[in-house]
Amino acid sequence: MENHLLVEAANAFGTPIYVYDLPFIAQRVETVQSFFEDFDFRLAYAMKANFNKDLLSLLNKLGTMVDVVSFGEYLQALSVGFSPERIIVNGNCKKESELERYVKDGVYSINLDSYEELLRLEKIASRQVRVSIRVNPDVDPKTHPHIATGLKENKFGVDFDTAHEMIKRINSNKNLELIGLHCHIGSQITEVEPYLEAVVSIKYFAKSVGLNFEVLNLGGGWGIDYGNGKAMSLQEYREKIFPILKELNSKIVLELGRWIVAPAAYLVSKVEYVKRTPFKTFVMLDTGMNHLIRPALYGAKHKILPLYETKGREKIKADVVGPICESADTFRKSYTMPRPREGELVVICDVGAYGYAMASDYNLMPKPKEIIWDGSKLFTSS
Ligand SMILES: Cc1ncc(COP(=O)(O)O)c(C=O)c1O
């Protein structure tokens, strides 16, 4: 988004604010859909990345599906107009009452995370229900350990032997319809190789059980470039993954979250103080880890750009911090930037995924407002 719009938003709505660029999101959806044009493909947006209602309404209008990991997300998806047949239910800890509701509503697929969940569902499935099995292919996604989900020591999914046992049970139950396999190996994955390993093992598994699955859901995880030049290469994905997907001949579902929304949002903040100590300079913002926890939680590094006149300004190295009473409340350490003055604005980039969704009012500092840019006007999100 152009800087003047971010400044305009800050002037109109105050700071700190998240600003969402909806046209950018529409473009991302279009890109991924045309990328898979040779396949029977469905995008199921992973709403855990960002559950903002205006953003979800846009995706609903664009006709995507949605992946939910909790009952709260399920209700949010319904509330913006997604019908149950366009909702995929994930999560490793689905409650009995929630499963009952998913069965009653007829969701697109309940993705079973364990043998134990299957036993629970068997008791509940009083009518036809579509299920998939989340397999854990034991693949290292080469990402931050907190967001690796497809290693055998992770809590998600089942190994292939257990999946085989589950298939037999599902096939012997007239109310359970096995539609496919699901696999989500992690998030912020910038190399194609882990996906290749995962799809190859899925291919051998499908062969070994002699099944042609209607749906292959490869989860999400595509990484974006946060400023270090590393991102998922679509060209390499096409070269390495497409041939195997063609062999498998299933409907392909992707549950992308971050790749769709991360670069579409900006956290605009005011510099409250520029504090100098004998050791360091601290640029103190009116937003902190309570609004964007990724740096504290994952060591994530977001670009921080000035929204002030930089001509003739001395370059400084500063720790950019927030107002929260924790030393982890640091966005960047020794960050080079033109020296700001009190009251000037900065923007933290690429915050559309796992930003507001993970925000809290810790220290009783309220969450920021969410502002929408729809391509022609700025307004407060509903
Ligand atoms: C089951 C599942 N699908 C999709 C996603 C979305 O991942 P990403 O935002 O990295 O695309 C996640 C995130 O952890 C997930 O757990």
Mean pLDDT: 96
Contiguous uncertain segments of 5+ residues: none
Taken in chain order, the helices and strands follow as: HEHEHEHEHEHEHEHEHEHEEHEEEEEE
Q: Roughly what fraction of the amino acids lie in strands?
A: 15-25%
Count of strand segments: 17
- What is the oligomer described by this structure? single chain
Write the CATH architecture name of the largest domain: Alpha-Beta Barrel
* Structural class based on helices, strands and sheet pairing: alpha/beta
Small-molecule binders here are: pyridoxal-5'-phosphate
Structurally, the number of domains stands at 2
State the CATH class of the largest domain. Alpha Beta
Number of helices: 11
Gross morphology: elongated
CA(first)-CA(last) distance: 21 Å
CATH topology heading of the largest domain: TIM Barrel
Give a quick set of tags describing it:
24% strand; TIM Barrel; alpha/beta; elongated; nine-stranded mixed beta sheet; eight-stranded parallel beta barrel; single chain; binds pyridoxal-5'-phosphate; 382 residues; Lyase, Ornithine Decarboxylase, Chain A, domain 1
Task: Describe the model.
With 382 residues, the chain is α/β, with parallel strands linked by helices. It has two domains: 3-16 and 262-380, Lyase, Ornithine Decarboxylase, Chain A, domain 1 (Beta Barrel); 22-261, Alanine racemase (TIM Barrel), CATH 3.20.20. The chain is built from eleven helices and 17 strands. It has helices at 3-13, 22-35, 53-62, 71-79, 96-105, 115-124, 160-171, 193-209, 234-248, 258-261, 294-298; strands at 17-21, 41-46, 65-68, 87-89, 109-112, 129-134, 176-182, 215-217, 251-254, 265-276, 281-285, 304-306, 315-321, 330-338, 345-349, 369-373, 378-380. Strands 1, 10, 11, 12, 13, 14, 15, 16 and 17 form a nine-stranded mixed beta sheet that branches. Strands 2-3-4-5-6-7-8-9 form an eight-stranded parallel β-barrel, surrounded by five helices. Helix 9 (234-248) links the parallel strand 8 and strand 9. Helix 2 runs parallel beside helix 3 (53-62) and helix 8 (193-209) runs parallel beside helix 9. The longest helix has 17 residues, at 193-209. The chain is elongated. The protein starts with a helix and ends with a strand. The model has no long low-confidence stretch (mean pLDDT 96). The chain binds pyridoxal-5'-phosphate.
